[in-house]
Amino acid sequence: MEFVDFVKLKRSGRLSQLFPGWKKGERVAFLSPHDDDALLGAGHLILATVRSGGVPSVSVFCRGDAGYSTAAEKKGIVRRRKSEAISAYGQLGVKKQDIRFLDIPDFSLMAHLDRRPPWGKGVFDKIVSTLRKQQVSRIVFSSGHREHWDHTAVFYAGIYTSSQAQDPILADLGKPYPARTYLAYSVWGDFEPAPEGHEIRADLGILAPEEDEKRVIDAVKAFSSQARIIKNIVAHRKKRKTQGGYLELYKNIRLRQPIDYSPYFRLLDKMR
Q: Whole-structure pTM over 0.70, yes or no?
C-alpha cells in the first residue's frame, strides 16, 4: 500500500503522508452517513490505520431504514443492516465496540445537526462527547458535493460540529481534545470543483494492491441487503485501477485557517 500527495508530488509507504506526524496508537474517527459509506469511500484508509498501529472507529449516522429493495425487506432492514455493518467493518479490523450507531432516519440527518432542534436533542453533543472521550486525532468524513443529502450533512458535521471538540466549551461533554487532520472521502461522486487553474479536485490518495482491494470488496459483500443498491458503485471501482494499484482519493480539509493580512497591507500601501 502506497500513500500519495498529489500537491507535493510525493509518494510514500508511510501513513504520515496522509496523516502528518502520525504516531502509533492514534484514534481515527470515520464518520459514515450510512453504514456502508465509509467502507466504500475509505476502506483502504481503515485498513491502513489498523496496519499502522492506529485505532479506527466508525460512527454510522443514519439507520438505513430506506435501504430496502422490496416491500418484504422493510420490517427488519434496520436490524439486519446493523448486523451487516459489524461484520463488514470487522473484516477490516474495526472492533465491534468501536462502531457507533446514531440511528437517525434516512434522508433526515441535516435536521438533526442542530444541537437543540425543536423536538429535543440533535447529534451535536454525541459527536463532541465521542471525539473528546476517545481522544480522536484524525477525522475522516464524506464529501459534501452532490452525492446524497445525508452525505452532505455528515460533511457539515465533520467541518463544523466535530471541530468544536477542541474548544473549551460544554465541559460536561469531556475534556477538549484537538483533531490534527480532517479528510473528506468520496463514496461515488467527484469532489467540489478545484480553484481555477487546477486540474484535479482531490489532493491525497492511497494506491492499494489487488489483495487489499479484494479484501475491501469482500467486506462490502457483507452488506447483502444492499446488493442491488451498491452493485453499480462496486462495479465502478474497476475504474480506480491503475498500474500501481487501486486508487482511493481524499481531499485535505483545512479548518480555521488564520487570515493572511499581508496582501491587504500591500494594497493599502498602494492607496497612499
A: yes
